[in-house]
Amino acid sequence: MRGSRAAGMAVFAFLVWGWPRAWSQQGEVVGRVNLVSGGDPGVVVVQIEDLRGSPLASVFTDEKGLFRITGLGRLSDNLFLVIEHDGFLPVREAIDLGLRQSANMMIFLQPETGPGAGERAGVVDVRELAADIPDDAVEAYERALEASRDGRSEAAIEHLNAALERAPDYYDARIKLGAEQLSLDRFREAEAAFAQAFDLRPEGELAPLNLGVLHYREGDLSAADGDLEQAAASFQRAIDFLQAVIRLNALSGDAHFYLGATLYKSGIYDAAEELLRRALDLADGHAQARLTLVNLYARQSRYAEALEQAEAFLEENPDSPQRTAIERARSQIEAALGR
Question: Taking the domain 28-124, which CATH number applies?
């Protein structure tokens, strides 16, 4: 029965995916451009620049303000989304591609004059934020990014703490500190860093998204250890944070994925399926959403749908380190279908 906690465990349940360090790197930025005062901004040019202001890519929004920039490859953290649209204040927003090398952004343009001119935009101009950050704090942050790219998390944490000693309100450093600590399974330290980032920018989505991921991971570990009560509590905290992110940004593919994955782990299959399929739409074939759907369908003996998702994953991710395991699962699914 669909959506039932009593559904049998399929033999394909070993397809549990790992932490996102194993995910494919796609170099993608998607989002929507809106007006603070409502209405249609018309066609807007969205550009990606590096730290020096050199253009890397640009696209036009569609009639709904939606945009997608792909094929950026594996890039550094020093990227900015730039919009200079006639009649509106310019936007230059730092991009956090994260471990998946993808970002979902909701941009609000603020008119230079007229209705809405005095209202707060949904995206803060990072040039104003950077003006209050000492140069030595920025240098320490950049050293942390370099250490992180080299896989030296302990060194990255040391540099980030140095940056935050000089600039306690350095939002990006708080987020990055939490991410590095989470990569080492230091949950409480990571939670504190993300909570402090949330206090600095409560309207932002990065802090609650990371808190949702953190509690999802804790719940998954508790479930693996057999502590189902603790797992349920952690999953509920994850649900609360991830639902808040979707209210802030309905285009967040990662928020839809993690909320769907959390509901799947909680046995709430119908809602999980809807969210995971939405993640596929938002993130153009979200690899981990596909794997979770394979497990979800197999657990419900919906083998034809499980096979469809497994084949789509293999086609979209030919170099995945999980390829051998997924091919084995595909064979098992085909056997269950009598092929």
Answer: 2.60.40.1120
**Yes or no: domain 125-200 corresponds to CATH 1.25.40.10:** yes
Asked if the model's pLDDT at residue 256 lies above 60, the reply is yes
The C-alpha atoms of residue 301 and residue 319 are separated, in whole angstroms, by: 28
Neighbours of 32 (CB within 10 A): 18
Reduced 3-state DSSP string for the chain:
CCCCCCCCCCCCCCCCCCCHHHCCCCCEEEEEEEECCCCCCCCCEEEEEECCCCEEEEEECCCCCEEEECCCCCCCCCEEEEECCCCECCEEEEECCCCCCEEEEEEEECECCCCCCCCCCCCCCHHHHHCCCCHHHHHHHHHHHHHHHCCCHHHHHHHHHHHHHHCCCCHHHHHHHHHHHHHCCCHHHHHHHHHHHHHHCCCCCHHHHHHHHHHHHHHHHHHHCCCHHHHHHHHHHHHHHHHHHHHHCCCCHHHHHHHHHHHHHCCCHHHHHHHHHHHHHHCCCCHHHHHHHHHHHHHCCCHHHHHHHHHHHHHHCCCCCCHHHHHHHHHHHHHHCCC
Instruction: Give dist(CA 15, CA 76) in Å, integer.
Output: 30
Q: pLDDT digit string (tens) for 53-86?
A: 777 888 888 877 888 887 665 555 567 888 888 8
- pLDDT of 270 strictly over 90: yes
Looking up tokens 């990072």 gives: 126
Instruction: Please list the residue range(s) of the chain that carry CATH number 2.60.40.1120.
Output: 28-124
Q: Please, which pLDDT band fits residue 38 given cuts at 50, 70 and 90?
A: low
**Cα distance between residue 218 and residue 231, in whole Å:** 7
Residue type, 46: V
What confidence score (pLDDT) does residue 116 get? 42
Largest CA distance in the chain: 67
Tokens of 290: 């596909």
Q: Where in the chain is the domain with CATH 1.25.40.10?
A: 125-200
